[in-house]
Amino acid sequence: MLVAVDIGNTNIVLGFLEGGEIVGTYRITTKANHTSDEYGLMITQFLSLSGYTSDDVDDVIICSVVPKVMHSFRASMIKFLGVDPMVVGPGVKTGINIRIDDPKSLGADMLADSVGAYVTYGGPVLVVDFGTATTFDYVDAKGTITAGIITTGIRTAAAALWGETAQLPEVEITRPKSILATNTRTAMQAGLYYNFLGGTERTIRQFHDEIGEDFQVVATGGLGRVLENDTALIDVYDPDLIFKGMAAIYARNTAH
Questions:
Q1: pLDDT of 76-118, one tens digit each?
Q2: Binding-site residues
Q3: Full DSSP string of 20-85
Q4: What CA–CA distance (Å, rounded) separates 177 from 37?
Q5: Rounded to two decimals, what is the model's pTM?
Q6: Which is the catalytic residue, given 59, 102, 109, 209?
Q7: 144-152 β-sheet, strand order
Q8: Which of 38, 53, 196, 248 stands 20 to 30 A from 123 (CA)?
Q9: CATH number of the structural domain 97-246
Q10: d(CA 244, CA 256)
Q11: In the chain, what are the domain boundaries?
């Protein structure tokens, strides 16, 4: 079994993959002060919940955008699973070319998402990840990342809204029943949701205008599931896209 680990700014998401199939996923809140023992305990418990033990783990691959977490997390893999994990980054073969000004600056998550989208759905494809940040990456028909943009995620925008105002409450991020809000809470929910939806659609249209060729739009990340049902501009929502990308990267680097 391969354990794929996506270390993001908000959550650490683990995927257990067996024979290329995802057999379990779990989330941990990303905290820099977790010790390797704490991570190891959580991971062995998650394995147990899926009916596995540490002995069932053949290898681990990590995709991280939080460097300060890596030392303790990597140490937990070595101590509890007996595996020194592969880390997505420079020197790791991905099968994807990167033609942006500074290829090394591309986030490991954006790279893994792009690999997952290309190997699963083909290209050209626009990959949209709705995470702590929202990212858009364009992969052409030959498997080359030629452009990408980064903007705020909806939860990040919402936190700024209630964090920088004295009287606005913290609200759940959800699709409102109507834009015709009649109280502060629903006014915030409707404003956040439709502003974000509109910005997403405008961004996708701009990619279409400037690229000048047809492409698929594949979305992933938490809010993608909600937005997918509210716009015709997203073709596929795939919550496991990054795990598919990491599995493909792992296979490419271990093939004999």
A1: 999 999 999 999 988 899 999 999 898 888 889 999 999 999 9
A2: 6-13, 107-110, 129, 132, 184
A3: TEEEEEEEEE--TT--HHHHHHHHHHHHHHTT--GGG--EEEEEES-HHHHHHHHHHIIIII----
A4: 44
A5: 0.89
A6: 109
A7: 97-98, 144-152, 133-139, 125-130, 216-220, 236-237
A8: 196
A9: 3.30.420.40
A10: 20
A11: 2-87, 97-246
Are 113 and 121 in contact by the 8 Å Cβ rule? The answer is no
What are 148's strand-pairing partners? 137
Any residues with CB less than 8 A from the CB of 116 and at least 6 apart, and which?
Answer: 220, 238, 240, 241, 242, 243, 244, 245, 246, 248
205: left (phi over 0), alpha (psi -120 to 50) or beta: alpha
Strands 86-87 and 59-64: parallel
pLDDT digit string, tens, across residues 167-217: 777 788 888 889 999 998 898 889 999 999 999 999 999 999 999 899 999
> What dotted CATH number matches 2-87?
3.30.420.40
Q: Which residues are annotated as a binding site for K(+)?
A: 129
Is 235 among the catalytic positions? no
Token pair belonging to 12: 């650490």
Backbone torsion region of residue 213, taken as left when φ is above 0, otherwise alpha when ψ lies between -120 and 50, otherwise beta? beta
List residues forming the annotated binding site for substrate.
107-110, 184
For residue 135, the cross-strand partners are: 129, 150
Backbone angles phi, psi at 186, to 5 degrees: -70, -25
Task: Copy the structure tokens of residue 251.
Answer: 């296979």
